[in-house]
Amino acid sequence: MTIEIEVLADPDAVAARGAGFVAEAARQAIAARGRFTVAVSGGRTPRAMLQILAAEDLPWEEIGIWQADERIAPDGDPDRNLTGLMPLLPPGAGFHPMPVADPDLDAAASRYAASLPAVFDLVHLGIGDDGHTASLVPGDPVLDVTDRDVAITDGYRGRRRMTLTFPPLARARRVLWLVTGRDKAAVLPALLRGDPAIPAGRVAAAEQLVVADASAAAELDR
User: Fold this and answer.
1) How confident is the model at residue 88 (pLDDT cuts 50, 70, 90)?
2) Is the dihedral of CA 110, 111, 117, 118 positive or negative?
3) For 174-198, what is each residue's pLDDT tens digit?
4) Which pTM does this prediction carry?
5) Residue 136: which of 162, 106, 174 has the closest Cα?
6) How many C-beta neighbours within 10 Å does residue 189 have?
């Protein structure tokens, strides 16, 4: 497993670099295999990345986009990652939202797992101040799920969630981490070490790039 890091000035620079990285990964995958598959997480910096990415000249009809996680909330709820993502998605891209409004969440998770590609070309992830990533949160039973690609968490910060589990993250060809903000500084070193004490440190994809802003990287040289 290789984890590389780039430190940039601020969240805007991180978002721009992320957009460029995803666009290049898409071009490479489409040239090699005719299709690009990516899973995306929510958050302010990822939304900025997607806004920049949407302006790229890409064959969007050859691109499939899945969610890495989603809060269990009604359609249109401001807590939903989908609510912020939908206006940014390029026309023509194949988007696969997590079916969190389904009354049978376990069946919905199984159905979503069946829609996933065998291997994602790229998974975009963030990290929380407690070391969680996607909705793989400290202490949740989902951390130990190895027989399903999608699962439902217990309650976390007011919501249950649907999330990709560790196996599909490990199979991804590449993982792109976007990490911004001073509140991430304490956990970023553990991510870079692949420290299994935090959920993010358990992501085992072979090729990983962390793009962090200066605030998030503040403790790396200490």
Assistant:
1) confident
2) positive
3) 999 999 999 999 999 999 999 999 9
4) 0.96
5) 162
6) 14
Contact 69, 160 (CB under 8 A): no
| Number of neighbouring beta carbons within 10 Å of residue 153 | 23
Beta strand 174-179 pairing with 207-213: parallel
**Pure H helices in the chain:** 11-33, 44-53, 81-85, 105-115, 166-171, 188-193
Token readout for 33 is 């295999």
What structural domains does the chain harbor?
2-196 (3.40.50.1360)
- Measured in degrees and rounded to the nearest 5, phi and psi for residue 86 equal -55, -45
Q: Are 202 and 131 in contact (CB under 8 A)?
A: no
Tokens of 131: 């070391």
Q: Tell me the C-alpha distance between 138 and 214, whole Å.
A: 26
pLDDT band at 222 (very low <50, low <70, confident <90, very high): low
**Distances, alpha carbon 101 to alpha carbons 64, 66, 173, 214, in Å:** 21, 16, 30, 38
Beta bridge partners of 64: 37, 94
Q: How far apart are CA 1 and CA 171, in angstroms?
A: 12
